[in-house]
């Protein structure tokens, strides 16, 4: 057990906090003992993870409602949601608690912001054809919300295509500036820029502060940062970032039960026009109040923020300590996997949050999204590995550089996550599963009568795969050195 330290989380109590102790390894295992055994969960990024103590706290809130719903609604619900909002306000360095709303998830927050933009088009405040700029890798639900609220009201959409793999943030900045220029073409105005703080797939940290600054310089009306993966994974300071709207899920990297998120709205004249898409009797009382009551439902995930902070404070360095250790660990594991497979990371380590993209052996033959999906299912069903996979279509210049040899290019990437419950064994299990698949492929190809040859591409060994020697019409088995 570690040395005692002073708990900086006051839970709204101004009294001197009691001494606490760092969580032990055995306690940590108990907190996540409900995870399915024998499964390497290296996909915390999708749905997060909730400790047993927080699940218990959530159940206490659920029971409190079920025991006496009227008393809970009248005397407890709103005050405790306000308490959660206040804690989030301090956590993200917001100016005022009124700027913070608690909502179900980032998808709900996107609907709130894009509904507001759609109304501006419908009411004539924005001109038909004015633009919304977004990254090509924006979350699919955000793209659908743009379609539902903005394009049908007359807005146009400019998609910024980001390169991948990436070698620096400057590549993102250059692409974004070009996207804004297209948005402003022919006298149009860019009414909203949607910027991911951390893109989902492929995963990379976006230089949001710089992109927000560029938006201000270029006269973009409003900026919405979709930071679904951010809180608990990267440092979040909404005043420093400077966006008009900033959302992050609390259930992904912040240990809350699903689903819950915060939406920060910078104090602006347009704030009264922001409304929750589910209309209740609180309509018109401000977004934070509207969001705190959208009808009878289970609000327990919004109420456990104090208990979550207590849990986080059991770790050395609190949330920043967890974040740094996860980042360091995921980079270390990504580099281990890339070395084992003779591949590469999808971005420099400083552009990785608590997730990293790792190239898969080219011999796996991933040539479509469907291939990636099938391989992911196979890893889950046959190896007990849960990890999302990404297909990255090769660029023409990459194909030309390889003299048309598409099979030498890395087109499959794994997005690995690291959270406090992960161990090195999880990543070794993934490494060994991929190695086994490659070896199995080699054996199958050998039985087909393929003749093995050696091929090395840019210092990376690619094992397996079939080539046709056009001069002899002979199948060749491509092996690493």
Q: Which class of the largest domain in CATH terms? A: Alpha Beta
On the 0-100 scale, what is the average pLDDT? 88
Give the assembly state of these chains: single chain
Integer count of domains: 2
Largest sheet: 7 strands, mixed
Domain Aminotransferase class V: 80-359
Keywords: Pyridoxal phosphate
Protein name: Aminotransferase class V domain-containing protein
Organism: Escallonia herrerae
Explain what you see.
The relative contact order is 0.13. The protein has 481 residues and is an alpha/beta fold. The chain is built from 16 helices and 19 strands. Strands 4-10-9-8-7-5-6 form a 7-stranded mixed sheet, sandwiched between helices. The radius of gyration is 25 Å and the shape is globular. α6 links the parallel β5 and β6. The chain folds into 2 domains: 65-308, Type I PLP-dependent aspartate aminotransferase-like (Major domain) (Aspartate Aminotransferase, domain 2, 3-Layer(aba) Sandwich), CATH 3.40.640; 319-479, Aspartate Aminotransferase, domain 1. The model is unreliable at 1-19 and 451-481 (pLDDT under 50). It has helices at residues 25-31, 44-47, 52-67, 69-92, 106-122, 140-149, 169-183, 208-217, 238-241, 287-292, 300-303, 305-312, 318-341, 369-383, 396-401, 424-447, and strands at residues 5-6, 19-20, 40-41, 100-103, 131-135, 156-160, 190-196, 222-226, 245-249, 261-265, 355-359, 385-386, 389-391, 412-417, 451-454, 456-457, 460-461, 466-469, 474-479. It comes from Escallonia herrerae. Keywords: Pyridoxal phosphate. This is Aminotransferase class V domain-containing protein. InterPro entries: Aminotrans_V_dom, PyrdxlP-dep_Trfase, PyrdxlP-dep_Trfase_major. Pfam families: Aminotran_5.
């Amino acid at each position: 057990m570690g040395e005692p330290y002073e708990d900086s989380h006051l839970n709204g109590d101004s009294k001197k906090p009691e001494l606490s102790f760092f969580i032990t390894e055995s306690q940590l295992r108990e907190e996540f003992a409900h995870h399915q055994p024998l499964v390497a969960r290296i996909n915390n990024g999708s749905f997060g993870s909730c400790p047993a103590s927080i699940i218990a706290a959530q159940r206490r809130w659920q029971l409190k409602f079920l025991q006496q719903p009227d008393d809970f609604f009248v005397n407890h619900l709103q005050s405790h949601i306000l308490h959660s909002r206040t804690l989030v306000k301090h956590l993200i360095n917001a100016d005022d608690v009124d700027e913070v709303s608690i909502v179900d998830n980032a998808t709900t927050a996107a609907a709130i912001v894009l509904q507001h933009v759609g109304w501006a088009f419908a009411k004539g405040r924005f001109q038909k054809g004015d633009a919304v700029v977004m990254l090509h890798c924006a979350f699919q639900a955000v793209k659908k919300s743009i379609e539902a609220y903005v394009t049908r009201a007359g807005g146009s959409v400019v998609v910024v295509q980001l390169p991948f793999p990436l070698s620096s943030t400057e590549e993102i900045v250059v692409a974004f500036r070009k996207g804004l220029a297209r948005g402003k073409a022919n006298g149009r105005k860019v009414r909203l820029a949607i910027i991911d703080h951390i893109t989902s797939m492929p995963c990379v940290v976006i230089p949001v502060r710089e992109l927000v600054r560029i938006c201000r310089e270029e006269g973009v009306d409003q900026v919405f940062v979709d930071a679904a993966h951010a809180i608990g994974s990267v440092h979040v300071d909404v005043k420093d970032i400077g966006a008009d709207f900033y959302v992050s899920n609390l259930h992904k990297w912040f240990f809350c039960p699903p689903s819950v998120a915060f939406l920060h709205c910078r104090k602006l004249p347009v704030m009264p026009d922001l409304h929750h898409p589910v209309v209740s009797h609180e309509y018109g009382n401000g977004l934070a109040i509207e969001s705190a009551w959208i009808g009878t439902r289970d609000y327990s995930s919004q109420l456990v923020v104090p208990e979550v902070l207590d849990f986080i404070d059991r770790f050395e360095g609190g949330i920043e300590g967890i974040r740094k250790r996860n980042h360091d660990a995921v980079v270390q594991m990504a580099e281990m996997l890339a070395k084992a497979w003779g591949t590469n990371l999808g971005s420099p380590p400083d552009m990785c949050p608590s997730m990293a993209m790792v190239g898969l052996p080219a011999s796996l033959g991933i040539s479509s999204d469907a291939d990636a999906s099938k391989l992911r299912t196979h890893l889950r069903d046959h190896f007990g590995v849960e990890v999302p996979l990404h297909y990255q279509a090769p660029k023409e210049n990459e194909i030309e550089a390889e003299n048309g040899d598409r099979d030498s290019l890395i087109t499959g990437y794994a997005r690995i996550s690291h959270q406090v419950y992960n161990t090195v064994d999880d990543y070794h299990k993934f490494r060994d599963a991929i190695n086994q698949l490659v070896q199995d492929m080699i054996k199958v190809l050998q039985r087909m009568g393929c003749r093995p040859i050696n091929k090395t591409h840019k210092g990376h060994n690619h094992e397996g795969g079939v080539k046709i020697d056009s001069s002899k019409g002979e199948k060749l088995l491509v092996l690493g050195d």
